[in-house]
């Protein structure tokens, strides 16, 4: 891939960080915290000094960026402002007269493009749902109840409306607009694409599909004031403002690291940094004073402190050196050890045993479940070698999924009605997934399935056996799928 040859790869020591410190940083995320990381890239002065991937992810594979996508939308808005096509203080309804109800709500009438960029709209909550079909209309027609521009309230519908604005003004969807103006000139993947909204627009609020190196390149461009190789891709005054403090956001966010302020679809970060943050730890963390960029992709949905833990690991393991050194003596042995550790590996496995003495007693048996909120009628386990096949019956028929015992197995989730490339439109195929299982107690097995497709999510089941009975606990962390897999059930061997 062309992009790979445009980043200079150097040793950590050459940019002032010991290889051992980088290894400690990586281990802290995946061994101490046991986060299911997909990639980590570390850059200083635009040079990659560490790059790690976890199977099935690699440098060439596109990855859902979730709300990091919002920063791409912001860049496109900045370009249109630079072109003189729109202005920050334009009322948003100017571009949506067909969607504004009459008479126009006075709060919405005064809400500007800048207000949407700052997540400081006149709406009191997210203005769209996955059950509606026109998210920009949802935003414009929302029963607003306060003046925009004064208080922060995170609303992905605001970004979605900006995406439709881009289409209305430029005639192009977000990714098509950015292709010639950002992706190609910055050496990013030309085939970056975006999940679509129900009405067919690029969902720049959550849907960008790009490689981690693409995200790193975008972060470098933004950190360089919107320029790359001497070419001004994003207006400098706009991107400097976008990545700077524009509004206080302490009341609407519970974590310290998300209370640093907000710009134009960019977060402020501790230590005078700024960030692009996406659900599940899709992150681009930029620290100008340390000349550091940290890129992460992962599926940490369900880990409430993940972003704080990632920040803490950066500040504890990397900052002490970045604040002192521009370079260190090379350490060939330490660097080789880091490279060996950074070779593509599996995501962390469940803590437990691969086998239990009761496997032979339960394998092949069908357990009929009593009525439950999940609608699961029965379950069956078939253990063979280092895998177990779980079969269950629900309203959609017979479902089967294979799990590795203390290892991962690639499979497709058996239900085919979930959405991926377009919200509201089922894929009509099983989502790619990687699944693992472990006996957490002699009579209790945990099964975890990670969706590793266009969308990311995780599904967890724990089955505890007692004589002829089984009891199930099921939880999920996924935005708009695995809907019914939350709850308890008990049953008896048929």
What does the model show?
It is built from 13 helices and 21 strands. The chain is of the alpha+beta class and 494 residues long. The strands form four sheets. Strands 12-13-14-15-17-18-19-20-21 form a nine-stranded mixed barrel. A six-stranded antiparallel beta sheet has the order 2-1-11-10-9-8, sandwiched between helices. Strand 10 (282-287) and strand 11 form a beta hairpin. Helix 1 runs parallel beside helix 12 (332-342). The longest helix has 15 residues, at 156-170.
Itemize the secondary structure elements and their pairings:
Elements (H helix, E strand, L loop, with lengths): L18 H14 L4 E8 L2 E7 L9 E2 L4 H14 L23 H4 L3 H5 L17 H6 L15 H15 L3 H10 L9 E2 L13 E3 L1 H12 L3 E2 L2 E2 L3 H7 L24 E3 L3 E6 L3 E6 L4 E7 L7 H12 L1 H4 L9 H11 L16 H4 L3 E4 L8 E7 L2 E8 L2 E9 L3 E4 L19 E10 L2 E9 L3 E11 L2 E10 L8 E7 L1
Helix pairs in contact: 1-10, 1-12, 2-6
Strand order of the largest sheet: 12-13-14-15-17-18-19-20-21
Q: Please give the radius of gyration in angstroms.
A: 24 Å
What coarse outline follows from CA principal-axis ratios?
Answer: globular
Count of discrete alpha- or pi-helical segments spanning 4 or more residues: 13
**Mean of residue pLDDT values:** 96
Largest sheet: 9 strands, mixed, barrel
| End-to-end Cα distance | 55 Å
Unreliable parts: 1-5
Tally of DSSP β-strands = 21
Structural class: alpha+beta
| Percent of residues in β-strands | 25-35%
Please bin the fraction of helical residues: 10-25%
